[in-house]
Specification:
Blueprint (H helix, E strand, L loop, with lengths): L1 H23 L29 H5 L14 H20 L3 H23 L4 H14 L9 H8 L6 H31 L6 H41 L10 H16 L2
Length: about 260
């Protein structure tokens, strides 16, 4: 439990950094410099006003200097990231598999909120995450058995590490290809873009971490969530379904996190 609590604290800190990325990356701003500032009055934020969750509560959700409201997204991202880190370390202990899932969860939290707010999925998270997933597959096995089955049919035998990397590569390539194909067909038939490349890259990242089965389950669940919740939101708010841009990446990200809960039961 001590390790899980430390994971929670570390997750809160990572969540604070994710908030910086969510705000700055869509604007092509450095996530390192300058230091954190109020998005309204641009006044630099002192360290004691930048403590995850606590500072937001003490400031009652307002900037100390201009009194402008601070988005509830800030504590939400920090709490969600901290909760994920706590859960993964609690279930798996201070291990490499837990570290891999913590990285995966942090990337998805950043992508969920970036897409929700700006309809942008930064390449630093999607493509960088896909590369990280492939690299980590060498050290933390992707137990999907799809690649192993293909190798068996071909009469080949590979090192277990390479099999794991191949599982991750299959997970990254196959679902993202079908998602890309679906978007391409929609464009050809409807003559307008229905799916951004960011969603395809996000699917590749998820597959690199989870393998083919996990990625396909994520794609199915994310599509269902997007259809049901998106349709309900459009009906409730009265938006035009033909022009409203659904943050599909947000639903894929939520589904990608949910799949990890099922796998750890």
């Amino acid at each position: 439990m001590l390790e899980a609590c430390l994971g929670l604290l570390f997750g809160l800190l990572i969540g604070s950094f994710l908030n910086v990325c969510i705000y700055r990356m869509p604007q092509d701003l450095s996530v390192v410099r300058p230091r954190s500032f109020c998005t309204v009055c641009k006044h630099p934020i002192a360290w004691y006003d930048n403590v995850p969750v606590l500072s937001y509560a003490l400031l009652r959700g307002r900037c100390r200097y201009c009194k402008a409201a601070i988005s509830a997204r800030y504590p939400a991202v920090e709490l969600l990231t901290g909760a994920l880190f706590f859960f993964y370390v609690w279930r798996l202990g201070p291990t490499l598999p837990a570290l891999k899932l913590c990285l995966y969860g942090a990337l998805l939290v950043g992508l969920i909120f970036a897409d929700l707010e700006e309809r942008i999925l930064p390449d630093e998270f999607t493509l960088g995450g896909a590369a990280a997933g492939l690299a980590l597959a060498w050290f933390v096995p992707v137990n999907d058995e799809m690649a192993e089955g293909l190798l068996w049919l071909a009469g080949l035998q590979w090192n277990v590490h390479w099999i794991s990397v191949m599982e991750a590569a299959l997970g990254a390539a196959v679902p993202s290809f079908f998602l890309f194909l679906g978007g391409w067909l929609y464009l050809k038939l409807r003559h307008k873009e229905g799916l951004g490349l960011g969603d395809v890259k996000l699917m590749a990242m998820i597959g690199a971490f989870l393998g083919l089965r996990g990625a396909l389950l994520t794609l199915i669940l994310g599509s269902v969530l997007g259809s049901v919740i998106g349709y309900a939101y459009i009906r409730i708010t009265g938006k035009d379904p033909s022009s409203y841009e659904l943050p599909f990446g947000t639903f894929l990200g939520a589904a990608g996190i949910a799949i990890t809960f099922v796998g750890l039961r």
